[in-house]
Amino acid sequence: MTVSPASPLAGATLHRHPATSAEAAASPHARNPGTPLNLDGVEAARVNLSAAERRAATLSTRRSVKKDAQAAWLLKAVTCIDLTTLNGDDTPGKVERLCAKARHPVRSDLLAALGMADRGLTAGAVCVYHRYVATAVEALEGSGIPVAAVSTGFPAGLSPFDLRLKEIEASVAAGAAEIDIVITRAHVLRGEWQALYDEVAAFRQACGDAHMKAILGTGDIATLRNVAKASMVAMMAGADFIKTSTGKEKVNATLPVSLAMVRCIRSYREATGHIVGYKPAGGISTAKDALAYLILMKEELGRDWLEPSLFRFGASSLLTDIERQLEHHVTGHYSAAHRHPMS
């Protein structure tokens, strides 16, 4: 499988979004400042579908992670979960309970049995609609856990452009440290790369110091080549993370799509030196799924992409299955899901 040549952004030296010194001090790596749009690099993106599917199939079938090693990998996965509630029946109480779970994502007796009682294990973030940003910020005060807000007319991204910008600004003002924006999928389907670049760059500008995750809606944009092109444009425009899905599409995160996106991240880093994170979201609900994604990140991008600063799962039900697997590791028995309530 190939995703663009090694230097699709050769000659791109201008930075649209220089990081502040405060941002550099707070992060283990510099934020992606973006580059000018390089249409030659975008059009050069290629993905071999058959090769991508074959490679993805090997991630969980040719590797075995068992016993203590599996427990360690699953605990790492917990730290990379964006606990998420994006439903019509959300309430302040539900969000507060989710935040309590983010503070203590694994039962204390299991952590004690695993020798992790004093490690301060938490989820990666809590992700909510703008309406509940302030609620989540208050509930997480002092924990160091960031609040992520979905924005820009989530999930379709079709509200008026000025309202999408104002929504970002309102969530940042309410305390969101991360903003998950959705792109206009029509720009991808019509090959309108300048329009997509301008849109994402404007969203990044509105985010200010808040990190921006660009949701591509991969289930809606038809082909892996479109996924690769959209990934490159979003990174050129300054995305801190690229993310597969809203979780509301018919098809959400898949391993072949993820492989295409992480190889774009690798190509972009090789060409520019800039580092971008990755977030698969939607449809990742089992510990086995989580292990496959962690293996993908480790093998394709390296150890740094096993940290929440560069990798997140968009999920909630995933945590329940991980806890069940950890309890099985400790006791030898599987427990019912209600023993591991989410909220």
Structural commentary:
This protein has helices spanning 21-26, 39-43, 49-61, 67-79, 92-103, 108-113, 133-139, 161-173, 185-189, 193-207, 224-236, 255-272, 287-300, 317-331; strands at residues 81-84, 125-128, 147-150, 178-182, 211-215, 241-243, 277-279, 313-315. It has 343 residues and is of the alpha/beta class. The chain has an 8-stranded parallel sheet. The protein is globular and about 55 Å long.
What is the fourth-level CATH superfamily?
A: Aldolase class I
**Which class of secondary structure composition applies to the elements?**
alpha/beta
| Overall geometric form | globular
CATH topology: TIM Barrel
Strand content bin: 5-15%
Tell me the domain tally.
1
Radius of gyration, CA atoms, in whole angstroms: 19 Å
Strand order of the largest sheet: 7-6-5-4-3-2-1-8
CATH architecture: Alpha-Beta Barrel
Overall mean pLDDT: 90
What is the N-to-C order of secondary-structure elements (H for helix, E for strand)? HHHHEHHEHEHEHHEHEHEHEH
Give the helix tally. Answer: 14
Largest sheet: 8 strands, parallel
Question: Cα distance, first to last residue?
Answer: 41 Å
Helix amount, in percent?
A: 40-55%
Taking pLDDT < 50 over at least 5 consecutive residues as the criterion, the unreliable ranges are 1-26
The first-level CATH class name? Alpha Beta
Number of strands: 8
